[in-house]
Amino acid sequence: MTRAELVVRLSSKMPDKSNHEIEKIVAALFEEISHTLEKGHRIELRGFGSFFIKKRGERRGVDPRNGDKIHIDSHHVPVFRPGRVLLQTLNS
Question: Global pTM?
Answer without folding.
Answer: 0.76
